[in-house]
């Protein structure tokens, strides 16, 4: 089971996607509310991915926030309109990767937009995709621990 999640942790809980692409504001805010965070350890990392980079390390937008037991929110300031999927993990030991056991099963919490199920493999794009319009949006998902 290969969940290529997030490779780089950002220092803040908010990122300006327009600035990341060299321009001004190009979209609207998107807040990802992550439930079932099991501890205050580490950071909760969120990657927003178009279909071509879903489950890969090169998602278009990434941000993180300090983990807060229960619920942690991560906000992206300017997400371009379109179809996206969020892939999330709690980096409890701050090593900037998803730790796995000898079978490749994540030892840290992982989750996907639309609470796409993880059944013997990562979810499919169609199960995690959501549409983001040019207006503020909040999505919710829960981390799963194995």
Would you mind describing this structure in some detail?
The structure is a single chain. With 146 residues, this protein is mainly beta. The chain has two helices and nine strands; from the N terminus they run βαββββββαββ. The protein is 5% helix and 39% strand. Strands 3, 4, 6, 7 and 8 form a five-stranded antiparallel sheet that branches. Strands 1-5-2-9 form a four-stranded mixed sheet. The longest helix is centred in the first third of the chain and has 4 residues, at 17-20. The protein is globular. The relative contact order is 0.29.
Q: How many strands, which pairing sense, and closed or not: the largest β-sheet?
A: 5 strands, antiparallel
Strand content: 35-45%
The separation of the N and C termini measures 13 Å
Helix and strand sequence: EHEEEEEEHEE
Principal-axes shape call: globular
Q: What's the total number of strands?
A: 9
Which structural class best describes the helix and strand composition? Answer: mainly beta
Binned, the helix content reads under 10%
Stretches where pLDDT is under 50 for at least 5 consecutive residues are: 1-22
